[in-house]
Amino acid sequence: DLDQDAAFGALLNVLKPLGIVSEGAGAHGGADLRLLHEHGVPVFDLAQDNTTYFDIHHTANDTLAQLNAADLDQVVAAFAATTWLLANGPSFDPAPVPAPEAH
Predict the structure, then answer these.
(1) How far apart are CA 92 and CA 84, in angstroms?
(2) How far apart are CA 82 and CA 76, in angstroms?
(3) In this predicted structure, what is the pLDDT of residue 1?
(4) Which of 51, 71, 88, 98 is deepest in the core (most CB within 10 A)?
(5) Distance from first CA to last CA of the chain, Å, rounded?
(6) How many whole angstroms separate alpha carbon 43 and alpha carbon 77?
(7) What's the rounded Cα separation, in Å, for the pair 71 and 20?
(8) 34-91 per-position pLDDT tens digit
(9) C-alpha to C-alpha distance for 22 and 30, rounded to whole angstroms
């Protein structure tokens, strides 16, 4: 089993060469990942500079053309590095996530 702290440390080692560093522990994953976190899946909160995030978010101007190429390169590299770590690093065995209830 891989605990959250060990998973976070391993990920930071992989992300550090990309200029991504930790601002502290206590990740919760936000609304999209809360259920996974509650069932033992390690989640990570990465703080980005979002000072202009809502300037175009969910507007007609929210297009790929607005992306900063260097930021996109960093994000793609971070996802690739994280995927590599999950595929090749220590494994963890989270509790099963229950299926959503039908309404």
Answers:
(1) 15
(2) 10
(3) 46
(4) 71
(5) 35
(6) 18
(7) 11
(8) 888 788 776 777 666 778 888 988 999 999 898 889 988 998 999 898 888 878 876 6
(9) 17
Provide the token pair at 27: 């990740």
* pLDDT value at residue 50: 77
* Structural tokens at position 95: 């509790």
**Token reading at 1:** 């089993």
Residue with tokens 């060469």: 17
Distance CA(36)–CA(38), nearest Å, equals 5
Residues in the chain: 103
Contact indicator for 100, 16 with CB cutoff of 8 Å: no
CA atoms within 13 A on the CB side of 96: 3
By three-state DSSP, how is residue 11 classified? helix
Q: Please give the Cα distance from 13 to 65 (Å, whole number).
A: 31
Here the tokens at position 20 are 């991504």
61 DSSP assignment: T
